[in-house]
Design goal:
Layout: E1 38-39, H1 53-67, E2 70-75, H2 81-97, H3 103-110, E3 116-122, E4 132-133, E5 139-149, E6 154-162, H4 171-185, E7 190-195, H5 200-205, H6 216-219, E8 230-235, H7 245-263, E9 268-269, H8 320-339, H9 352-355, H10 360-363, H11 370-379, H12 386-404, H13 409-424
Parallel strand pairs: 6-7
Antiparallel strand pairs: 1-9, 2-3, 3-5, 4-5, 5-6, 7-8
Helix pairs in contact: 2-3, 8-13, 12-13
């Protein structure tokens, strides 16, 4: 409460009751990891280290509140000096941030004793152009003015604004969360507001909807109606801690993950593949973990497909005649490229000592040359489509551009080669 209201506590009572942390027990029936695999820790799915912008702003706001740099206080017009100074500062913020609202109208509602305001207070003097000076040497950076109707169990939000210099930092979301918790402690179940076109998007993000579920007879004639605005409603859930929504989201996600562990192996990590075994293709059933999931080789009892679909993988091969024709066409194109007068720098892998390109393999992480392409073509299983063949040729040219630059003469040779294979493929 503001010092002008009670004076018993210096800190506000806005943190509300402390909700117990959402602890999700681990599943007792989760599928165990097979031999050679291990389970992945899923406890920290969503938390303070999350890169989500909403979570980052929430963490920042909770830290500022814990340090006492930011606080939220309920202020009512009890004619005390501190309360009047705080309401005056809050009125100045509303007038500045809501220019379409008449100054006299804002003043009348803010100082109305039937309304109460939730002020965002920041310790220290008022920076130039931000906030408004309040009692006790603090600064009002924003706030919300609303009128509670306790018998009808709803409140009407009249004004809500944050100083322009403090926007897009999470203050608005935190302020609305504090308003919701305050309303819950007062026994209210709904929040209503008349939002203009500029505020509709904000209120939607805060859980407000165009659908009004509160009975018509409870709010009709009690809330202020404006032209060109949209009436919106937010239904409050007593079991939701609006001040710690990321913790609730984390608990829900953890609960879902623990349930998935009972019906899947999504939490199991298998060792990687040995790249030396990939020279002749790889049957799918030999990939670690694939045989442990609900995967069948073929619905009709056929052979398992391959990572390349070639005969070397033991899979149902593609049309042999089509594959032979494709290989013959690609070999013809490759022979023309190798016979071209500009292909000599690309016939073999780059030798750093002979060419002087000492740092070539530090710059180019995925090298390719015509000899490697020829080897893959001879193996017969790698280039099952001309697009794969074309991708290797383009990568060879792009590597040359990356290392030598566009103005180098070797890059000109690579461009000549590129025109050749693009015209043939």
């Amino acid at each position: 409460m503001a010092r002008g209201v009670t004076g018993k506590r210096k800190e506000p009572e806005l943190d509300g009751r402390r909700y117990p942390r959402q602890v999700v027990p681990e599943s007792k029936r989760r599928r165990p990891a097979p031999l050679g695999a291990w389970t992945q820790d899923t406890r920290d799915i969503l938390g303070p280290d999350s890169q989500h912008a909403y979570v980052q702003r929430w963490v920042r706001m909770t830290q500022l509140e814990a340090k006492g740099e930011v606080s939220f206080r309920i202020v009512v017009n009890d004619t005390s000096r501190d309360a009047m100074l705080n309401l005056l500062a809050l009125k100045n913020v509303f007038v500045k941030q809501l220019p379409n609202m008449p100054r006299a109208y804002v003043s009348r509602l803010v100082f109305d004793r039937k309304h109460e305001s939730l002020a965002l207070m920041k310790s220290g003097a008022t920076p130039v152009g931000s906030g408004s000076a309040a009692a006790g040497g603090e600064t009002v950076m924003g706030g919300c003015c609303y009128r509670p109707f306790k018998e009808q169990k709803f409140a009407e939000v009249a004004f809500l604004a944050i100083s322009q210099t403090e926007q897009v930092r999470g203050y608005g979301t935190r302020l609305m969360a504090q308003v919701k918790e305050r309303a819950k402690r007062c026994g209210l179940t709904h929040l209503l507001t008349c939002a203009d076109n500029n505020a509709v998007a904000y209120f939607k993000k805060q859980g407000f909807s165009k659908k009004i579920t509160l009975p018509f007879e409870l709010w009709q004639g009690r809330i202020k109606d404006y032209e060109g605005v949209l009436l919106m409603e937010c239904k409050l859930h007593p079991q939701v801690d609006y001040l710690n929504m990321p913790l609730l989201l984390k608990a829900q996600k953890c609960c879902l993950v623990e349930k998935l562990k009972e019906v899947s192996l999504s939490h199991v990590v298998y060792p990687g593949l040995d790249v030396t075994s990939l020279r002749r293709g790889l049957p799918l059933e030999s990939i670690p973990g694939l045989a442990d999931i609900s995967w069948r080789k073929d619905g009709r009892g056929g052979a398992a497909p391959s990572t390349r679909g070639g005969a070397a993988s033991g899979a149902a091969s593609r049309d042999p005649a089509a594959q032979a024709a494709l290989k013959q066409h690609l070999q013809s194109v490759l022979d023309q490229i190798k016979a071209h007068g500009s292909s000599w720098p690309f016939l073999d892998p780059v030798n750093p000592e002979e060419t002087g390109a000492i740092d070539y393999y530090q710059v180019i992480k995925n090298p390719i040359d015509l000899s490697v392409i020829q080897t893959r073509l001879n193996e017969g299983w790698f280039y099952v489509t001309k697009e794969i063949f074309l991708a290797d040729l383009k990568r060879m040219v792009e590597n040359c551009r990356t290392y030598n630059g566009k103005a180098h003469y070797v890059t000109d040779l690579a461009c000549q080669i590129e025109r050749v294979f693009l015209s043939k493929l």
